[in-house]
């Protein structure tokens, strides 16, 4: 009876051994993937939270800066109302003196002041940095999504671990963490440029 029990238990053991040997090193890769998934999830989640906040602020800030640029751009051009008033005064003076109104083209001597030019330059750079910040945040979110999804689509444990390690090494090689830390600095620079232009704008007005 004991021999029958051993014989009856042999097929399941052979099946278990064959499944275990079907993927060499699976017992080594599984703990690695468990720790790696926890690390990656925490890292990507923190990046997503930071990038979402930056995207919202950059979008609102860019819209505000654009409104200021539209208003300040008017100071770079000659006011058409003033031009019309000047032309009408010339015509009225000529009619008062009994001379014929001249239709010669009027040469414009308008030149925007340097402060006005500086304000527009500062605000255009501010808008550029803000848009660059938003673009970088979107790219980081896309890469983070690819970083998590790409290894999980592989059924083999060893291949999944190799794929994750490859992406992790690429992340270190491209210094993605440094890029993520630099994105808020772009937004800070944009704010500094905007407030510098705002002070000059109030001085002009």
UniProtKB/TrEMBL annotation:
Domain of life of the native organism: Eukaryota
Transmembrane as UniProt keyword: yes
Domain DUF6535: 29-202
Region feature Disordered, mapped onto this chain: 1-21
Transmembrane segments: 53-70, 117-140, 178-202
One Pfam family here: DUF6535
InterPro entries from the UniProt entry: DUF6535
The protein's name: DUF6535 domain-containing protein
Source organism (scientific name): Rickenella mellea
């Amino acid at each position: 009876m004991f021999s029958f029990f051993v014989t009856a238990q042999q097929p399941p053991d052979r099946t278990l051994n064959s499944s275990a040997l079907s993927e060499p090193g699976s017992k080594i890769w599984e703990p690695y993937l468990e720790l790696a998934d926890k690390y990656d999830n925490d890292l990507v989640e923190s990046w997503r939270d930071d990038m979402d906040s930056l995207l919202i602020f950059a979008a609102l800030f860019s819209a505000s800066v654009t409104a200021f640029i539209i208003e300040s751009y008017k100071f770079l051009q000659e006011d058409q109302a003033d031009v019309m008033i000047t032309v009408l005064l010339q015509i009225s003076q000529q009619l008062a003196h009994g001379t014929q109104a001249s239709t010669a083209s009027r040469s414009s001597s308008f030149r925007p002041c340097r402060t006005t030019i500086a304000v527009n330059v500062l605000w255009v750079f501010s808008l550029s940095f803000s848009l660059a910040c938003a673009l970088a945040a979107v790219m980081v979110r896309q890469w983070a999504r690819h970083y998590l999804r790409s290894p999980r689509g592989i059924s083999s444990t060893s291949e999944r671990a190799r794929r994750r390690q490859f992406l992790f090494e690429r992340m270190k090689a491209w210094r993605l963490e440094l890029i993520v830390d630099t994105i808020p600095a772009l937004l800070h620079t944009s704010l500094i440029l905007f407030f510098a232009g705002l002070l000059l704008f109030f001085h002009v007005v």
